Amino acid sequence: MRDLPKDQLNPKIKNVWRINDAIWLTVAFLCLFIPFLIALIVESAPWIGITLAAIAALYVIGLIVWLVILPPIRFVRWRYELSEDYLDIARGIVWRKRFIIPFIRVQNTDTRQGPILRAFGLSSVTVSTAAGEHEIPGLETHVAEQLRDRAAELARIAQEDV
Fold first, then answer.
1. Does the keyword Transmembrane apply (predicted)?
2. Which CATH code is given to the segment(s) 79-161?
3. Dist CA 76 CA 29 (whole Å)
């Protein structure tokens, strides 16, 4: 079996993941909690209070899992490597995925940077093929730009060789 790719993401990506996950968990929590809270105000039924407590408990458990437990594991499992012929990406905690993307198949390379990534000085590189997009998140902006440019150059060279 082939060795894992050697390059890792920037460690600051763990905080980006935590912020993203906290936002989504909080939005989901509020969408579930507020209707039951209104129902409790309108009609004081004991089952509504129990439901509210269960939703709050699931929210706290979700925060612990997604903000404390998963980011370090996710960080360790995310790896990538750029060689002369292909881009190798390995990721996943339970379901591990490995992508070998030959440069002959690459159609486009991009960098992306949302507000949270920008706050941490990070960017993502996206490599597009006919089969879809593959993203490498959490690289320092200058590293992401170098990786994007190198991947685009290798894709151009691969296209010329055909």
1. yes
2. 2.30.29.30
3. 28
Q: Judging by beta carbons within 10 Å of its beta carbon (0-12, 13-18, 19+), is residue 70 exposed, middle or buried?
A: middle
Distance CA 131, CA 155 (A): 16
What are the domain boundaries of the chain?
Answer: 8-75, 79-161
Read out DSSP for 48-68?
HHHHHHHHHHHHHHHHHIIII
Which position has the token pair 């004081």?
Answer: 44
pTM of the model: 0.89
Question: What is the predicted pLDDT for the residue at 160?
Answer: 82
Using CA atoms, how far apart are residues 123 and 144, in angstroms rounded to an integer?
Answer: 6
pLDDT band, very low/low/confident/very high, at 118 (cuts 50, 70, 90): very high
pLDDT at 121: 96
C-alpha distances (whole Å) from 101 to each of 62, 73, 104, 106, 162 are: 34, 24, 8, 8, 16
